[in-house]
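Hey,
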Amino acid sequence: MRFLKLLPIMIIIVILAAGCGSGNKSRDANIQSPEELLAKGDAEFNSGRYNEALQTYETLLVLHPISDLHVETQLRMAETYGQMDQFEEQMSLLKRILQENIIPGQVPQIYIQIGKFYERAATFNPGIISSDSTDLKTALGYYERANRYENSEDIDAKAESVYRLGLVKAKLGNLSDATLYYETAANQYANSPFGVLAKVKLMDPGNTSELPMDEASMQKYYEQTGSVPQAEVITPEEPPEEEEINLFEEEN
């Protein structure tokens, strides 16, 4: 696996970054935080620079070995492998994450990634992995698992699972079921990015193309559907509790 090949190099980077003497603080200040590296990798991924994204994600894992973003980063790596058509590495990593993951809240994301693997497998000629319809039905199974998984409050993952159930149903030619799933995603997760994608698909349920999710495209979808971006949804504040007054309090 690419990560293992780069590991010795990354260890050297860590040692050099740690340094010694008076230059420690200046070197440490130059090390990007896990959040910064994840954002950098995501930007590279969204712009199609998959090799660079993979290297950035790997850097995060090595420089920040106890970060809370480890599972999230490995999921991003798995998706990057998929985009690079390195399916063996993708599935190997996904299976390992699923076996070793101790964070229940991220299980739906893992199921979704495996579902995407089988969705992409269905685009190849029948017989290479199984058959188109078989791969799509396997993908449906994983999306259903993600949707039914109870020990997670990851709303975006649940929204994505319902959206992709609709997309796969459309790929199988079942537009009535596809429409029902899109309507569910659009209504239950109205301001989630995947709820907005579902609204776009409802305009043409037979369109099975992948909708780009870069910032410019998402802005266009929000305007097209009249939706409000999730980050801009305002939750009304609860009024402060009024102090109770005891009308029968005895005077001293």
